[in-house]
Amino acid sequence: MNSVKILHCADIHIGAAESFLGTRSVSRQAETLITFEKIINITKENNVDILLIAGDLFNSNSVEKTFIDRVFECFAEIPDTKIVFAAGNHDPLNHESPFKKYPLPENLYVLDTRDSCIEFANLNTRVYGKSFKEVYMQGQPRFSLDTDDNFINIMCIHGELRADLGSDYNSIISEFIENSGMDYIALGHVHKRTDIGKIGNTYLSYCGCPEGQGFDELGEKGVYLGEISKGTCQLQFVPTAKRMHICESIDIGGLLTPNEIAARIIETIKQKYSDNFADNLYKIILTGYVDETADISAPEIISRLNESVYFAKVKNKTEIKVDFELLAQEKTLKGIFVKNMLAKINEAEQTEKDRLKAALNLGLKAFSGEVSFDED
């Protein structure tokens, strides 16, 4: 066989819950399992030879048994695919691991916590790797197992690409990759997808997580699918996420009411994310210059948005449209406040000016009405 078809996934975190969703966190938790089922279906539909799972399949080793049972059922549904799993820092291969406590499907191969190699002679492929034994793994992989150029050599491993060995999560440095003898290294741990890279003769990538778990994991998520051969890597990104986490800055200059503001937000995200806009989770940052009399009630705006989208949160970063110099001449408490703040801004170092300007705008909002507790 000149090539092998693989699907590379990682960091699925089955069992994780987005607690900020409140009562919907349980259903959102189930969606992560459904995304995993989608990955299994992609594997089946594309006749994948080897499914590589580079760690953190489960969010912890104490995940509910119903999740474990369903995952193992899914593995059994693709008996013609070899499944290779390298445990990560969230689901380390110790006595609490589901992969130690329960019977495993026949097509599932779990990499040991020592240097490991699994040979699939019929695929002319060897898969190397190492599992986490505990939450932390210092140092770097130092494989004592020799590669064989007569085979396609692949590594499946959870760890952190670094220029040094300072990581608690299995440092993987360029020197190791260049000398590894691998044709491809399937990496896990980093939730943001990277392009397919190459160090020496070795291709490598992080596929990222297939379903985002918060607003630090923005945009489209998925897996890598394709073929690996000696000296060639032909992998394509395949989206899998049911919902995207999206952060959008939207200028609401000139608007006065929560209804107008919510309408502009919906119009903007609908135009940008088309028919699927309603399925996503949004962090909306309000920007622009607004009138002092504008009613920017974040709770009301959020309530209106949640009639149209799965989830929304709002951060007010607008600035009051006002003649500060004229206002500073008023013999009122507001005028005195503005006069003092302008003096501080004029005297401040450049690095402090933005912070003081933000404080000035926040103060003016306080004079005009209630300030939300999370404004900063």
Strand order of the largest sheet: 4-3-2-1-13-14
What is the rounded Rg? 26 Å
CA-to-CA gap between the ends?
Answer: 60 Å
**Low-confidence segments:** none
Can you summarize the main beta sheet?
6 strands, mixed
Number of domains: 2
Structural class: alpha/beta
The proportion of residues in beta strands is 15-25%
Give the % helix: 25-40%
CATH class of the largest domain: Alpha Beta
- Give a count of the beta strands, DSSP E runs of length 2 or more: 19
- Give, in order, the helices and strands: EHEHEHEEEEEEHEEEEEEHEEHEEHHH
Coarse shape:
elongated
Arithmetic mean of pLDDT: 91
CATH superfamily of the largest domain: Metallo-dependent phosphatases
Question: How many helical stretches?
Answer: 9
CATH architecture of the largest domain, by name, is 4-Layer Sandwich
The CATH topology label of the largest domain is Purple Acid Phosphatase, chain A, domain 2
Describe what is shown at a glance.
The chain has 376 residues and is an alpha/beta fold.
What does this structure look like?
By secondary structure, the protein is of the alpha/beta class. It folds into two domains: 3-239, 4-Layer Sandwich (Purple Acid Phosphatase, chain A, domain 2); 246-368, no CATH class. It contains nine helices and 19 strands. A six-stranded mixed sheet has the order 4-3-2-1-13-14, with no helix packed on it. Strand 1 (3-9), helix 1 (25-45) and strand 2 form a beta-alpha-beta unit. The longest helix is centred in the first third of the chain and has 21 residues, at 25-45.
